[in-house]
Amino acid sequence: MSLDDACVSELHVELVVHDEGIEVRDLDSHNGIYHAGSRILRAVVPRGASLHLGESTICVDVVEASSTAPRPPRDSFHALHGKSEVMRELFSHLERLAPTELSVFIEGPTGSGKELIARALHDESPRAKGEFVVLDCAALPPALAESVLFGHAKGAFTGASEARIGVFERAHGGTVFLDEIGDLPLDLQPKLLRVLEQREVTRVGEQQSRPVSVRILSATWRNLRRMVNQGFFRGDLYFRLAQTCVVLPSLAHRRDDIELLVSEFLRCLPPEAACARAISGEALDELRARDFPGNVRELKNVIERAAYMCNGALIRPQDLAFDRLLARAPRNDGAETEIPDFKEAKRTAVDDFERSYLQRLIAKTNGNIAMAAGLAAIERHHLRSLLKRHGLHNPK
Ligand SMILES: Nc1ncnc2c1ncn2[C@@H]1O[C@H](COP(=O)(O)OP(=O)(O)OP(=O)(O)O)[C@@H](O)[C@H]1O
């Protein structure tokens, strides 16, 4: 606290709170401290006491620590928004978790915000100045997986013309987010466990290990506990990764978030873009009735598409049906039909085709990606990214 009083020294008094009252210490001030008519150098005064310093009088008291008062619920945590009870609880949980070093395992269906949580935990942690490195374990090329994780020495294998660091060394001082951890090959699991326990990595082709300081966050849409029971995932690694768990429900289980999410998505559209900035109550009702298998990602796509494609500044229910426009029977009642922009209409038709093809493919193969990729004659990683784009990569 500073006083605008020429008779008060630069560092005049020190106050320390005790159970019995407030201890007042004179810091060798020029004009001294007076209480109840007497000069004091060091004394304990009761709460609410008046002190005279120079020409000023101050009242010293203790404000109860605000941490004891319940905090108002928050509707956001970094880029995450939500006002449903479950999300508000999650946000205050994340607030407590962020500054710790605990490994956090994030469970939730596709598009529900797992990566956003990981990024927010990193940004709110003391490691925020370090790197946030994302590793998609489902996209690891089998032959190079170990080198991607731990790095390799020059000449460690054919094609290793240069030494390379892996994700752990890259994230030294920061955070590694292991996405789709359920897809980590079994043979790599003990090696990962060793890194997490010993906090050091050994590059492929080297003997000596290097210390690394990283916080580990991981996520999957799979049921990892079931995978542990079935022997597809090591129990010891699971417990090391899941020092604490965060569970994200699907959007269908937190419909109270939809309105807030929609207004956030509209608010974040580029300011110079000519598009809708608001949504009608009826359109919102229609959204609240939908299932959204692709969760928040799907809602975001729907809103962005409707905002750009609708005529006017307000999204109405008919604008949400745009993706079904081409599939409708042609109207013959003479009413004027709107002709969408050719490129956009073509993209929508391709989207519709892809989605229905993938749905049939996944139903036919019972969600088996390898079999589905074989049947469709496309690469597995391509199929995975198509499924992800359509919010279908969690078919069970
Ligand atoms: N609570 C939220 N608030 C705002 N945007 C969100 C929220 N949850 C998700 N999103 C948005 O939805 C999209 C998908 O989020 P994210 O990538 O974090 O999901 P995910 O669960 O990691 O998906 P996947 O399992 O498919 O990798 C992103 O565009 C993200 O910004």
UniProtKB/TrEMBL annotation:
InterPro entries in alphabetical order: AAA+_ATPase, AAA_lid_NorR, FHA_dom, Homeodomain-like_sf, P-loop_NTPase, Sigma_54_int, Sigma_54_int_dom_ATP-bd_2, Sigma_54_int_dom_CS
Domain of life: Bacteria
Leader sequence residues: none
CDD domains documented for this protein: AAA, FHA
Protein name as it appears in the record: Sigma 54-interacting transcriptional regulator
UniProt xrefs under SUPFAM superfamilies: Homeodomain-like, P-loop containing nucleoside triphosphate hydrolases, SMAD/FHA domain
The UniProt record lists the keyword Nucleotide-binding: yes
Domain Sigma-54 factor interaction: 80-308
Keyword set, alphabetical order: ATP-binding, DNA-binding, Nucleotide-binding, Transcription, Transcription regulation
Sequence ranges assigned to domain FHA in this UniProt record: 1-40
